[in-house]
Every structure is written in structure tokens, then in C-alpha cells.
Write a structure and sequence with these properties.
With about 350 residues, this protein is an alpha/beta fold. Helices cover about 45% and strands about 15% of the residues. It is built from 14 helices and eleven strands. It has helices at about 5-15, 30-40, 45-50, 60-70, 75-85, 105-115, 135-145, 160-165, 190-205, 220-235, 250-260, 275-290, 310, 325-340; strands at about 90-95, 120-125, 150, 170-175, 185-190, 210, 240, 270-275, 300-305, 315-320, 345-350. Strands 2-1-3-4-5-11 form a six-stranded parallel beta sheet, with helices on both faces. Helix 10 links the parallel strand 6 and strand 7.
Length: about 350
């Protein structure tokens, strides 16, 4: 919007030179009635303009939005819930110990970008590995505190998904299940990631590979393992068992496990890491063992912050997973479920192959 357009709208709204009228008492929230008074419009017209109703002209919508922004108007959620039965809240049920280099920041940013142009607000409902993952889901359902839910860390038989499906609360998941319930999801093709990672290492001449993957209870752990084994078989390579750690483990524990493996008589010459933090830990572990990255061993790691790992260690090979776009897509999907779009039409398996190496 140009300055001239803004000035014109201000004059139309009667706000030029005074963006605070009418005066509000200390602590008093501006309401639809406040906007109606300032614009000379009816309360119903103001309400419909803020909701982007098709029967309200664009000029009127701009006029109403300008005044609403100037006076700091925000819908009263309690009032909205009483009138519509909706909370205008999307709950992201998030494990607080998720990889800090990935989902926690990137996905929230993506979800927020989509919700910014809607009446919906994002509320993060946290839990930890030590707590019952059903507790936050039950809380959201039993308190009616959200119109839709986004979940991550899906399992093949996921009780949270069955519960939300039975309760008919719209939801979308970052990951898939094997439980025969059609649900909206955005998933990364971890099988393709692992196959391509093996191919990269095979073309670098590596023969003995190990995989640092997710916990086995998660669905994508199976997908990643299947892709890894398919690649091993295709290129006739040897699998080297990894000590009992996963990408969920502390970065120091992961580094120690890689160091232990690299100083054993079973040391691999290629390592595949299912997360950025595991890639960092693998680089530390190999260097601590006195092994030179890019000469005696090569590492292929998934990364969620583009080029971050290459900046950290130029010798690392990376394959990107776009958590920010996953967040955007999940937000669009849960909003579509709220509007009644069938879950079967809201399922995405995403993957961008790495550039082919010479």
C-alpha cells in the first residue's frame, strides 16, 4: 500500500492525524464497536470486512483493516468461541527435546508464516521423552483449547492419531503411520534419503557403511533403514553395526559412540547420519579418533538448515530436508481439514534429490 493510499484511507476513516480516537479507558481493549465508530460503518460490516467476506468491497476492507491495525484491535478469543464454537487456535504438540537444528525453529517458522494470513494463532503444547505423549493430546481435546492439531514423531501404531481420529478433531502429522487410518500428513522420503546417501558413499569408493538413525519406535526409522539396506545391496557394500545410539541421543554421547566405533577393528569408511546434530557428532567422533574426514572416511548427513553443515565441516556431504516448507504444508493441511477437505487428499511425501556428483 502506498503512502498516498494510506493517507486517502485515513481521511476516509476519519483517522488522519489522530490514530487513537475515540479515547479508551486505561486497560480497555478496542472492540468492533470502536472500529465501527471510527469508520462510520455498522458493526456487522466491520466484522465481515475483518473476516474477508466476499460481499464486502476491497476498499471497505482496507479501510477497516487500517483502523484495526492503528488502534491495536485483536479479536477476543473467548467471545469468538462463544459466538462460533471455535478457538482460532492451532496446537503444535511438540517434543521439547526435538533436534534444535531442525524442527523446533524451522517448522514453527513455517507454520507461523501460513497462519499469519488467517484468524488462527499457533500455540505450542510441549512434552518430553519422559512424559506420556498422550497427555498433551488429551489436554487439547478435553479442554477444547484448539480447533486443530499438528503432531510429529509418528509411530506405526500411534495411539495419539487413533484418539484424535475417534474424537473427530482435525489434525495433520509430520510423518506417516501403518494403522489403516487415513490422515493428513507431510512426510520426508527417508528411504530415498538413505538410498541416495549410500550411492554418494559408493561413488566415493567407500565399502563399509554404518547408519546413525532415529529411534526404532518411530515410523521413519523403518523407512530410513529400508533405504539404507536397499542401497547396501545394490552396490554390494558391507553394513557395519552402529553402537546402540540414535539421533535422539545427546550430541556428546553420539560423538563418543562414533569415536568408539572408529577406534575399533570394525571401523567403517562411510557414515550416514539421519540428522544435522548427528552429522556434527560424527565429525567430532572421527576427528577425535585421529581419522581424517574426506580421506579415510566420508560422512553423508541430513541437514535442515541449508549449508550449515558444509560451513561447519566443508568435507561433509549433505542432503537437505526443508522443515520450514514442511511447517507451511502442515499448516495448510490442518486448515484444510478444519474446512472439511478429506484426509486422503492431504498427503504429501516430499524429497529433493541431491545434485548428482561427477
Amino acid at each position: 500500500m502506498t503512502d498516498q493510499t494510506t493517507n486517502d484511507l485515513q481521511r476516509e476513516a476519519g483517522t488522519s492525524g489522530d490514530t487513537s480516537a475515540p479515547k479508551l479507558a486505561a486497560g480497555q481493549r478496542p472492540t468492533l464497536k470502536t472500529i465501527a465508530f471510527m469508520t462510520g460503518l455498522g458493526i456487522t460490516t466491520v466484522s465481515k470486512a475483518l473476516k474477508d467476506a466476499p460481499d464486502i468491497g476491497e476498499a471497505t476492507k482496507k479501510r477497516v483493516r487500517l483502523v484495526a491495525d492503528q488502534i491495536g484491535y485483536r479479536p477476543n478469543r473467548a467471545g469468538v468461541r462463544l459466538r462460533t464454537g471455535k478457538t482460532n487456535v492451532i496446537s503444535l504438540i511438540l517434543n521439547t527435546e526435538e533436534e534444535i537444528l531442525g524442527l523446533t525453529s524451522q517448522m514453527i517458522q513455517g507454520i507461523s508464516e501460513v497462519l499469519a494470513s488467517t484468524p488462527y494463532h499457533l500455540v505450542v503444547t510441549p512434552y518430553t521423552h519422559a512424559s506420556d505423549p498422550m497427555s498433551p493430546v488429551r489436554y487439547v481435546v478435553e479442554t477444547g483449547s484448539a480447533d486443530g492439531v499438528i503432531l510429529s514423531r509418528t509411530e506405526p501404531e500411534d495411539l495419539r492419531i487413533r484418539y484424535l481420529h475417534d474424537k473427530k478433531l482435525p489434525f495433520a502429522t509430520h510423518g506417516r503411520t501403518d494403522m489403516g487410518i487415513a490422515h493428513a500428513f507431510h512426510d520426508y522420503d527417508n528411504a530415498a534419503f538413505a538410498r541416495d546417501a549410500v550411492e554418494i558413499l559408493a561413488k566415493l569408493g567407500r565399502k563399509r557403511l554404518t547408519l546413525v538413525g532415529p529411534p526404532r519406535n518411530l515410523t521413519y526409522s523403518r523407512h530410513m533403514s529400508e533405504g539404507f539396506l536397499e542401497g547396501i545391496a545394490k552396490y554390494d557394500l558391507q553394513q557395519v553395526p552402529m553402537p546402540p545410539v540414535t539421533i535422539d541421543d545427546d550430541i556428546h554421547k553420539l560423538g563418543d559412540a562414533v569415536h568408539q566405533l572408529m577406534t575399533s577393528d570394525q571401523a567403517p569408511d562411510g557414515i550416514i547420519c539421519g540428522s544435522g546434530s548427528a552429522g556434527i557428532a560424527a565429525a567430532f567422533g572421527t576427528e577425535k579418533a585421529g581419522v581424517t574426514l574426506g580421506k579415510e572416511v566420508d560422512i553423508v548427513s541430513k541437514q535442515s538448515s541449508f549449508d550449515m553443515l558444509k560451513w561447519f565441516r566443508p568435507g561433509l556431504n549433505v542432503i537437505d530436508e526443508d522443515f520450514r516448507e514442511a511447517g507451511r504444508d502442515l499448516a495448510r493441511k490442518v486448515l484444510a481439514r478444519i474446512e472439511g477437505t478429506p484426509a486422503e487428499d492431504l498427503q504429501t511425501l516430499a524429497y529433493a534429490p541431491p545434485p548428482k556428483q561427477d
